[in-house]
Design a protein that fits this description.
Layout: E1 5-9, E2 12-18, E3 21-26, E4 29-33, E5 36-40, E6 43-44, E7 49-50, E8 54-57, E9 62-63, E10 66-67, H1 71-81, E11 90-94, E12 97-101, H2 103-109, H3 111-119, E13 125-127, H4 133-145, H5 152-164, H6 168-180, H7 187-197, H8 200-212, H9 214-219, H10 228-242
Parallel strand pairs: 11-13
Antiparallel strand pairs: 1-2, 2-3, 4-5, 5-8, 6-7, 9-10, 11-12
Length: 243
């Protein structure tokens, strides 16, 4: 990221990366957070104007002379370490496959692994007998890169694995993905999942979605096995929405 020059003229901020290259922001209210400027009440540039909330990257922020590096570059570096034998001091054995990892990374990211490695510092191979390979690899990938690519089935499997290994942020990501991808053709799978594992926050999202899509669900009701408790809750929500 290039450093940006900042000029203040009345209620206009101008940012220049090079001569002739500028961006001016005209706003009613704004706040700075780390290396971003978040403005309300309008954005005016040399190309167009908008009236929405806008977030602008300003450059590396400094606080007490401490500068932040680029998160993307760090994620790429950590991504190269994922499942790499370089400096690896632990291997996971799962479904006949060996996955190389680094204790210091996993201990820093997971209380579960930290406790295991503290009890057995010489441990070099750890059997994972009760977890599927793909969600476990996705879990490790998230611990290294803080990102994950999901589909319906992986999100369901990964939710369970993330809960087991204490990755609350990843659990929330799975819940968000599943909530945003609710459809008539996967509704029954979502209901079955909730009934099996609990997932109360996700259950609330499913009930809310079902409430707003109740007519389409009724038209295909022979496809679903909806618990009676769900039907009572949906009826209650429909009545509240109609008031």
């Amino acid at each position: 990221m290039k450093f940006l020059k900042l000029h203040k003229e009345e209620n206009t901020l101008a940012f220049a990366q090079s001569e002739g290259d500028y961006l001016s922001v005209r706003f009613g209210t704004a706040t700075a957070y780390k290396n971003s400027l978040i403005s309300w009440g309008g954005l005016k540039t040399n190309k167009d104007s908008t009236s929405q909330i806008t977030c602008l990257k300003l450059g590396r922020a400094s606080q007490n002379n401490v500068y932040e590096g680029e998160n993307d570059s760090f994620s790429q570096f950590m991504g190269h370490l994922y499942n790499s034998e370089q400096y690896s001091d632990i291997q996971f054995s799962i479904e006949g496959e060996k996955i190389s990892a680094h204790k210091v990374v996993l201990a820093a990211r997971s209380k579960y692994f930290n406790e295991i490695f503290a009890k057995e510092p010489q441990l070099s191979v750890l059997e994972i007998p009760d977890v599927k390979l793909e969600p476990f690899k996705a879990l490790l990938g998230f611990m290294y890169q803080n990102q994950v690519e999901l589909n319906d089935q992986l999100a369901l499997d990964l939710y369970v694995v993330a809960e087991k290994y204490g990755q609350k942020e990843l659990v929330s990501i799975c819940e968000e993905f599943l909530s945003e991808n609710l459809r008539l053709d996967n509704l029954q799978a979502m209901i079955d999942f909730i009934e099996k594992v609990g997932a109360e926050l996700f259950k609330n999202s499913v009930l809310e979605w079902m409430t707003w899509n109740i007519q389409e669900i009724k038209e295909r009701q022979e496809e679903y096995r909806i618990p009676q408790s769900y039907l009572w809750e949906i009826a209650s929500r429909v009545m509240k929405n109609s008031k």
